[in-house]
Amino acid sequence: MSIRIARLHGQRDLRVETLPDPEPAPGEVVVAIGAGGICGSDIHYYTHGGIGEMIRVQEPIIIGHEAAGTITALGEGVEGLSVGQRVALNPSHPCGRCSFCEKGAHQHCLNMRFKGSAMFMPHEQGFFRDRIAIGAAQCYPIAEGVPMAEAALSEPLAVCRRAITRALEVAGTLEGKRVLVTGAGPIGALCVALAKHFGASEIVVTDLQDATLAVAKDVGATRTVNVATHGADLTEYEAEKGYFDIAFECSAAQPALRSAILCTRPMGTIVQVGVMGDTPVPFNLLVSKEINLIGTHRFDKEFGQAVELINTQAMVLAPIVTHSLPIADAVIAMELATDRGKAVKVQITFD
Predict the structure, then answer these.
(1) Residues of the chain with pLDDT under 50
(2) Enoyl reductase (ER) domain: which residues (predicted)?
(3) Which of 54, 74, 167, 204 has the fewest Cβ atoms nearer than 10 Å?
(4) Is the dihedral of CA 134, 140, 142, 147 positive or negative?
């Protein structure tokens, strides 16, 4: 038997090919992928052949690092999982031995192997395939009744849950807080859903597209502002040195970061979630307003926390998955994912 894979050979050269059916090694299971989400990094690999100058696609790579599926086979020694069980897949595999892993900061592992990543050679092959053999420890059971599409949001939700962790480290709580989210893509929308879940009293979301802002509204935003057409509406939040207690900057755009700094109150907190290159920052405002500007990177224990949230169905997540296409249409799905005027989260589905 063989499986279908979506393998990227170079810039805008994504091919649906086949590989032999995998067998589980000791400690592994085989998972039939049900749904896999297209992430911003997948889009960068596809459209630009890499991310920046440092991470380049140097050999064919099966992309995709957001997935959930059903276990079809167990390797020797696997306990606690069963054939037929639905699981979310954690793409993160830290080494456990480097200085960061020894300190419990696994998200900063110096030897991280991350599914679908071109960071190292050979590249780490990803999830866009019918079936995959993967370590049992990377499988997190999904509750009965949870749609596969929502289960496949576990990885991006974990990224956003890590952003919440970082905010709580400084702000203590989101309960009753006024929150700004800049950027209404998948990460922005998931930050909105989490901010609502953690008790924010007001959640204002900005973006350039009405379609993505509509999704943000569906998952918990109290107000949305299209800054392309109504940017002046933000001026009211700049008055008296700023309005918001916490901002999640998810757009990776310099104007959005500047806006977040202007709209955040003195001694408030901005969590930079979106990854941007060298960017001018108005440090005079950061200093004079004593704003906490903090970063957030991937996740660690937050993956399990994200799965738990999905299992309890405590948040509205369905609107975030705007399109689902079969693996045969992987190229169409990738092109659609690049159109932010139409799509938020695009997923590839498997028989």
Answers:
(1) none
(2) 10-345
(3) 54
(4) negative
Comparing CA positions, the residue from 201, 243, 245 lying closest to residue 220 is: 201
Query: Do strands 13-20 and 178-182 pair parallel, antiparallel, or not at all (unpaired)?
Result: unpaired
Query: What is the predicted pLDDT for the residue at 259?
Result: 97
Domain ranges of the chain: 2-153+317-349, 157-295
Domain 2-153+317-349 = CATH 3.90.930.12: no
Taking the CA atoms of residue 125, residue 129, residue 134 and residue 139 in that order, the dihedral angle to the nearest 10 degrees is: 120
Q: Which CATH class is domain 157-295?
A: alpha beta
Strands 345-349 and 321-326: parallel
d(CA 331, CA 14): 6
Residues in the chain: 351
Q: pLDDT tens-digit profile of 95-135?
A: 999 999 999 999 999 999 999 999 999 999 999 999 999 99
Count of CA atoms in the C-beta half-sphere (13 A) of 167: 30
Do residues 247 and 270 lie in contact, with contact meaning Cβ atoms separated by under 8 Å?
yes
Residue 175, burial from CB neighbour count under 10 angstroms (0-12, 13-18, 19+): exposed
Residue 288's CB is within 10 A of a number of other CB atoms, namely: 11
Please name the residue that has the structure tokens 């918001």. Answer: 244
**What does the alpha-carbon distance between residue 204 and residue 236 come to, in Å, rounded to a whole number?**
12
